[in-house]
Amino acid sequence: MRIALLSYRSKPHVGGQGVYVRHLSRELVRLGHDVEVFSGQPYPELDEGVRLTAVPSLDLYAEPNPFRNPRLGELRDLVDVEEWLRMRTGAFPEPLTFARRVRRVLAQRRADFDIVHDNQTVATPLLGLEALGLPLVTTIHHPISFDRRIELASATTRIKRLGVRRWYSFVRMQARVARRLGRIITVSESSKRDIAGEFGVEPARITPILLGVPEAFVPPPADRARVPGRILAMASADAPLKGVRILLEAFAKLRTERDLELVLVSRPTPGGPTEQLIERLSIKGSVRFVHGLRDAELVELMGSAEVACVPSLYEGFSLPTAELMACGTPLVASRTGAIPEVVGPDGLCADLVAPGDVGELAQALAALLDDPERRRRYGVAGRARVEELFSWRAVAEQVVGVYDEVVAEFEEKRC
Q1: CA distances to 79, 323, 407 from 295, in Å
Q2: CA–CA separation, 105 vs 101, rounded Å?
Q3: Contact yes or no for 130/137 (Cβ under 8 A)
């Protein structure tokens, strides 16, 4: 099958979209399919046999100068002008403007593909692909309305709340588009329920397919000791959704009585709320940020922690949770979204706590740090659960099953 896989932005090592595109495309190629990825910046890291077609945006959010004004010579067409103007009014335009650009590209190449698989763009122009003769399936990792709701709750002023509403204005478009899509893939039963409830999509049109963990994620060698007192957490974005504030406050409570180190795989906004909170809690010397790690470096870091924490206020799947389990690292995680679905029953390979509860999180971390036998048991059970359930090969096989159904239904409608 000839597959066009779309992703409006695809960071290689952080965030779910770039990870999803890389591993799914690789396994689809291994199954004998032809895959071409169409992506805006940042572009994905792809494996041998997968082609990349760049669909460049103005890249207005790239470090070290996010929210920049482009030079006049950078504006190539009216889509570029629209992207710039929407950004200047506080909106996030990339899903819509990427969809406009990629639809134009696919209109010229419609004979090259049997199906188009959109990864989380969920923008109005993509609804026109079927009129071009291209069947469409879309992956929605989770409804972004959850992110919007959590950020609104964290906004402290009316101006900030207005800014959040404007930034997330694209969510209304995604809800409208989702209701018109013929088939949606999502990443958990929890996300299926949430997409149906938040976006008003018929559950029968949503297929949950759990994500995989790369084979490189393995426990550390038996002769390598974990670093005493090291707690590890991963946050792909410095946003309220990831619960970093909750973890920092819990860590500060523990740090008054224990010799601990917190390693955050994240890149905080310079001078932003996270850095300010660390200063206020007087824990700067005990908190370390790392980012830009390749898989081998990340695996080594995951295998070095005595305990890992996933303090998110919501997750549609939580790839870091599954990757930590694959590395045999015992977890304390929030009882929210798909996390209980990923880790299994409370006490199997993780302790689950109420999202947002600083006291309960601190207590659970302390109890697990004090119980080496339970840490060992959780690590073994987590690894076994990943081996049983989370394979990218299985993901690709199930996705191809959805492709076959969508193509057959499309051809039937055309007859």
Answers
A1: 36, 10, 35
A2: 7
A3: no
> pLDDT tens digits for 310-358?
999 999 999 999 999 999 999 999 999 999 999 999 889 999 999 999 9
Q: How confident is the model at residue 14 (pLDDT cuts 50, 70, 90)?
A: low
Q: Tell me, what amino acid is at 115? A: I
d(CA 88, CA 382): 45
> What are the tens digits of pLDDT across the range 160-204?
999 999 999 999 999 999 999 999 999 999 999 999 999 999 999
- For residues 18 and 42, what is the distance between their CA atoms, to the nearest angstrom? 9
CA distance 195 to 143: 6
Specify the domain boundaries for CATH 3.40.50.2000 within the chain.
2-212+392-414, 227-389
Query: Rounded to an integer, what distance in angstroms lies between the CA atom of residue 95 and that of residue 118?
Result: 11
Nearest 5°: the CA angle 66, 6, 406 is: 150
Residue 271 confidence (pLDDT): 86
CATH classification number, 227-389, choose in 3.20.20.190, 3.40.50.1220, 3.40.50.2000, 2.40.110.10: 3.40.50.2000
Its pTM stands at 0.94
Please give the class, per CATH, of domain 2-212+392-414: alpha beta
Distance separating alpha carbons of residues 38 and 19, to the nearest angstrom: 15
